[in-house]
Amino acid sequence: MKKRIIWIAGSVIILLSAALLGAGNYFYNVAINRSHEPVELYSGEAHTASAAFEEEQQAKLEDVLKWTEEQTFEQLEITSADGLKLKALFLKNPDSDGKAVILAHGYKGNSRQMPGITKFYYELGYDVLKPDARGHGESDGDYIGYGWHERKDYLQWIDLLKKEKGGTSIFLHGFSMGAATVLMASGEDLPSEVKGIIADSGYTTVYEELAHQLKHMYHLPSFPLMQITSVFTKIRAGYSFREASAIEQVRKNKLPLFIIHGDRDDLVPTDMAYEIYGKAGGKKELWIVPGAGHTDGYTVAEQEYQEKLKEFLEAALAQ
Description:
The chain is an alpha/beta fold. About 45% of the residues lie in helices and about 15% in strands. The chain has one domain: Alpha/Beta hydrolase fold, catalytic domain (Rossmann fold, 3-Layer(aba) Sandwich), CATH 3.40.50.1820.
């Protein structure tokens, strides 16, 4: 009887272990492994806009896309420290006088996105560099780093702007995963040419963001699936979910930092913006955009966004 109980218990443990390992591998493939398939993330209830607002936004989009088509973007390339060929689009401004911005896209995004903010920076006289993050767009990579490995890639993009494009006053501006990327980069030893960082809708840590998605998409607790998936990620992608922390990186920040977040952001909870702001070093500013969902601040409050951004840029350049 005792042997039978031990055999049953052992069988249950083996089955549970196999199930958890299978689940860990599944979630790695869904969240970390490179895929060209779109992923539906949890973003809360959709907020409907008026027909007039939608019509106005469509007209603005058509104008900015027309402007984008008229520009000549140069494709640049670097080789990452781990041997990946990373690509970016570069828009030279004849009036930049060394001013440049690196725009960081979000999860499953690419360098051809963010046309509105690209046009805005160009009209302010900035060169604009838009990298494809590793595992995205035209760049190499078979996994998504959620900003952690990308922070090191950005050191190389900054170096390229300095040495090849005459960048003397460089800003980093990211959205969602791109915001986490520039926040994580803020804790690195950045050169004096980097003058400030703008993070729109960034998350605190990869662990907390994926746990948030796991809870709402699959109605599952974080333990033990997050721990197991993190082990898979450490083995296959070289980082763990807890070490990939914007919170720990911004503690070391010394640059002017502008944190932007919508008060209706359910994809990356608005509370994360307050936490990042509270832990960040350096001169910092927080703007919670009323009525804005995830990365919607520029859409729902374009004029105010532009005014606040110009004030931040000018103040940072004056330091």
